[in-house]
Design goal:
The complex is a heterodimer of chains A (220) and B (132). The relative contact order of chain A is 0.10. Chain A contains seven helices and ten strands. Chain A is α/β, with parallel strands linked by helices. Helix content of chain A is 32%, strand content 25%. Chain B contains five helices and six strands; from the N terminus they run βαββαβαβαβα. Chains A and B meet through helix 4 and helix 5 of A and helix 3 and helix 4 of B.
């Protein structure tokens, strides 16, 4: 794939390195000449010095034939504009933007950015999950279907402990996919499955139903 | 009408003064409180420190009840992003934004944003002066 990366900061640098290692064709567009030099000295001439929001620069690096543009500068507005120019001027099929402010997700989506990654949210989620008392962990997001796969721990004091699946008031559209008991093999739950303290449950839910599910399984 | 202006530079401050004199209710936003010194002494509107890219700051400025939104900061991308937030998230009826880069201006005009490009306008005006 031919990938244009806008922003040659730390994120752009490591991302491009990984993409190059995977065998992709990568070009980085970075404003700061000193950053360009560091990248080019180390990775070979992959970095072009210029403003990745400017049509002329994007044309120069051949954005018209790019399969993907990834904007990872430190400014949300620059990432948004780079993706919009790529999408509307060069018909790039896939645009990915990094966001600093998680609130911007709605506007980025509305304006047609295909994938948004909120660095703040990613770090926040990881920190939350490292808090031992936090019962719900996000494992995977299936973005185009608005679904997520989560893991929930059943604590001894949870209301669900000692209950069967049919007795739980699960939110609509929620599927319990797997029960992983502490000492036995994982199994697919049925309505008769008895939940015990220490069980871990893998469930497929919509983001809105997350709170209801957490309350149903680990609530007291 | 109720107008929100993002960016209290020379243009923003002057526009705020003009609209205020015309009797409109004006709120002007800038990230730097120091820039409000440009506002005329007679200005009766509201000057708020805040980032127009931040939806919370826009709400504080009353974007939900605004009739018009103007973005005139120094950054094209900032202007473009806040104008799109005002238009698409808060449904402000009239949104105008300044874009210096002519190519970017052309793109956002075709995307339905009401834009003003000082670079193009001023260059044309200068040519007319010189060729007159």
């Amino acid at each position: 794939m031919y990938i244009v990366v806008v922003g040659g900061g730390r994120l752009g640098y490591y991302l491009s390195k990984a993409l190059l290692n995977e065998g992709h064709e990568v070009v980085i567009v970075e404003k700061e000449a000193s950053f360009c030099k560091i990248i080019n000295d180390e990775m070979g001439g992959v970095c072009i010095c210029g403003d990745g929001c400017e049509t002329t620069i994007l044309a120069e690096v051949g954005t018209g034939r790019a399969d993907m543009l990834i904007a990872v500068t430190g400014d949300d507005e620059d990432n948004l504009v780079a993706c919009q120019v790529a999408k509307h001027k060069f018909n790039v099929p896939r645009t990915i933007a990094r966001m600093r402010n998680p609130q911007n997700e709605a506007i980025f989506k509305k304006l047609g950015i295909d994938v948004t990654v909120s660095s703040t949210n990613v770090i926040l989620e990881h920190i939350q999950e490292e808090v031992p008392t936090h019962p719900l962990t996000h494992l995977l997001t299936i973005r185009d279907r608005e679904l997520e796969i989560v893991e929930i721990k059943i604590t001894p004091e949870a209301a669900a402990t000692g209950k069967r699946v049919r007795e739980l008031s699960l939110p609509e559209g929620c599927r319990l996919a797997l029960v992983i008991p502490e000492k036995q093999k994982p199994r697919m739950p049925t309505n008769d499955t008895l939940l015990q303290a220490g069980d871990r449950i893998i469930a497929v839910i919509t983001p809105e139903a997350e709170e209801t599910l957490r309350a149903a399984l680990s609530g007291i | 009408m109720k107008v929100i202006i993002m960016g209290c530079g020379r243009v923003g401050a002057r526009l705020a003064g003009l609209l205020d004199t015309d009797g409109h209710s004006v709120t002007i936003l800038d990230t730097d409180a120091d820039s409000f010194r440009r506002l005329p002494a007679t200005f009766k509107g509201t000057a708020l420190v805040g980032n127009g890219l931040d939806q919370e700051a826009l709400k504080r400025a009353g974007v939900e009840e605004a009739d018009a939104f103007v973005s005139v900061t120094q950054g094209d991308n900032r202007n473009v992003m806040s104008a799109q937030i005002a238009k698409h998230i808060f449904n402000v009826p009239k949104v105008v934004c300044r874009i210096y880069d002519p190519l970017r201006q052309e793109l956002y005009s075709t995307l339905g944003l009401e834009t003003l490009g000082p670079t193009t306008i001023f260059a044309q005006m200068l040519r007319e002066k010189l060729e007159a």
